[in-house]
Amino acid sequence: MTTTHPKELSSELIAEVQSWLNQDPDDVTRTELSELLDRAQSGDGQAVDAVQSAFSGPLTFGTAGLRAALGPGPSRMNRVVVQRAAAGFAAWLRAHGEKEGSVVIGFDARHNSDVFAHDTAEIMAGAGFHALLADSPIPTPVTAFAIKHYGAVAGVMVTASHNPPADNGYKVYLGDGSQIVPPTDTEIAHEIEVVSSNPVGTIPRGDDIELIGDDLIDAYVARAAELTAANQDVTWVYTAMHGVGTRVVRRLVDKAGLPTFIGVTEQLDPDPDFPTVAFPNPEEPGAIDLAIAQARTHGADVVIASDPDADRCAVAAVIDGDWRMLTGDELGTLLGDDALRRGLDGVYANSVVSSTCLGRMAKAAGREHRTTLTGFKWIGRVPGLVFGYEEAIGYCCDPSRVPDKDGITALATIMRLVGDLKASHTTISERLDEIWATYGLHRTSQLAVRVTDMSIISDAMDTLRNQPPSTLLDSPVDVCDLNEPGNGSGLPQQNAIELTGARVHVVARPSGTEPKLKCYLEVRATPEESAANLPGVKARLDTQMVALREEMAKALGM
Q: 214-225 and 407-423 helices cross at what angle (nearest 10)?
């Protein structure tokens, strides 16, 4: 007969938990952890699992900063983790010659964002910096804008963007307004590790903190208003997805003389619980259904949606006779085409997981194009950038002021474009068809798998690396492992695999912000085919996309 032993915490882990409890300044997380410890020591197996999970290791400080569920312990987002991160970032700045100057600190409306921001401000002040702290929740792009506006040496934004309600996060920017890239992330992580050897109560605090608010919003809105046009005959619906966009968008409407939007009332005000959506991400099924219903009721020309921290922007319109949301690539192609038509001189860029159409358009217009690794930390750093986008509804329409994705300047640009199209008696759908007839139809989609066991993702990537397909849709493909040094792509190493054929482009990679495996799919037709019979080509490529998704699922062992 086999004897099973009850789960229990090791003495080392108990000591680690006690040390954490002794320094945690937050009554809520301290009480939660204390109760978990009591239950675990009383033989509650679920409590043992919860404690072990919370102390499974420190959060990895990567190029996206920190992001995780709220809760006690080093594997969660809480005041101890944030204070260590702030002190580590301050130490990195000082080690790299920035021993004074201002640091901008913004925060969204998620649970504890304001608390984390205030902790950060005190610690930055304690390190000798002048903390410029937002006086209320603001969009992420406003924080990024503020860095250059105030001549700050760095910035911090407390946000988990479009993650579920239980999450929060911590993004850092350098003095040029851009997100960090390797090896800065590992250098900051090292400084955080050094700080973590002592209790957070020993971290110096200061009171050189200045609150910033209306003046910053006014400056940002004044700049955004330059990208749009007043007195447009556009009927539009707007949703903030329970985030922080509404206040700034309303100010933009007033400043720029835009038509008043029809708001999705249930989603306009900040609410950290995001009650009307399963995930507060415009890309998720059903997220903008309320907005589209409003558009149908009011005969709107366009729907524009911000994600919760307003750094991303989504658009819905009548496409091929029915309302639907444009894909991130469709909107990126539309905005890129608009910039090219207006003769904006500079470099056009998109990430490797985005459509290849922008590159074709830029080449045809005699403009330089750059393909980057995934993320605006790379797109925003492209020298001479005039427009950049990523398929995950991120658009950089004002890179000289905000070298990051910015959902509000994207909104301003979209409003001008829609107004121009309507004035010339055409629509978004018709403009897209014109682009496809000129450059060939580009259809993009995703195979995305959300997991609870991260080993599923690594196993799938290993399967693809070890046995990549030689053909997709019965055509040969070249395979490029972007994680291999000297892979020939011209890109820095990244855990991604690219497959390229004459009419197919696929990139598989783990998500950088969510427990997801993502496979980005593109099928293309020639300009000649598209111009001759666009409806037929659309139907054919949609069928091919279904087949491509199935082939890639098999190749990944999913």
A: 30
What is the four-CA torsion angle of 216, 220, 222, 224, rounded to 10 degrees?
A: -170
Per-residue model confidence as pLDDT tens digits over 329-381: 999 999 999 999 999 999 999 999 999 999 999 999 999 999 999 999 999 99
* Cα–Cα dist 102/549, whole Å: 49
pLDDT digits (tens, 9 = 90+) for 152-184: 999 999 999 999 999 999 999 999 999 999 999
Region 407-433 average pLDDT = 98
pLDDT of amino acid 490: 86
Distance from CA of residue 45 to its chain's centroid? 36
Q: How far apart are CA 336 and CA 360, in angstroms?
A: 11
Question: DSSP assignment, residue 202?
Answer: G
Other Cβ atoms closer than 10 A to 438? 14
Residue 46 has a CB neighbour count (10 Å cut-off) of 11
* Phi, psi dihedrals of residue 154, rounded to the nearest 5°: -170, 170
Residue keyed to tokens 């020939």: 488
Query: For residue 320, which amino acid is it?
Result: D
DSSP letter at 200 equals: G
Residue 169 dihedral angles phi and psi, to the nearest 5°? -155, 180
Residue 451 has pLDDT above 90, yes or no: no
Residue 259, C-beta contacts closer than 8 angstroms, at least 6 positions apart: 232, 233, 234, 235, 236, 253
Q: How far apart are CA 136 and CA 348, in angstroms?
A: 34
Sheet holding 394-396, edge to edge: 368-372, 347-351, 385-390, 394-396
Distance of CA 407 to the CA centre of its chain: 11
- Helix 328-341 vs helix 428-439: crossing angle, to nearest 10: 80
Q: Considering only 59-73, 343-357, 468-482, 526-540, which range has the smallest mean pLDDT?
A: 59-73
Give the whole-angstrom CA distance, residue 499 versus residue 381: 25
* 102 catalytic per annotation: no
pLDDT exceeds 50 at position 192? yes
DSSP class of residue 93? H
Name 449's bridge partners. 517
Query: Distance (Å, rounded) from C-alpha 351 to C-alpha 377?
Result: 10
State the CB neighbour count (10 A cutoff) for residue 543: 11
Query: Can you give 212-276 as a three-state secondary structure string?
Result: ECHHHHHHHHHHHHCCCCCCCCCCEEEECCCCCHHHHHHHHHHHHCCCCCEECHHHHCCCCCCCC
Is-above-0.85 flag for pTM? Answer: yes
Contact 479, 506 (CB under 8 A): no
Q: Which of 75, 102, 161, 178 does the annotation list as catalytic?
A: 161
Q: Hey, how many other C-beta atoms are within 10 angstroms of the C-beta on 135? A: 12
- In 3-state terms, what secondary structure has residue 279? coil
Cα(163)–Cα(140) distance, rounded to whole angstroms? 14
Q: What is the CA radius of gyration of the chain?
A: 24
User: What residues contact 406, with CB distance under 8 A and at least 6 apart?
Assistant: 141, 144, 145, 311, 395, 396, 397, 398
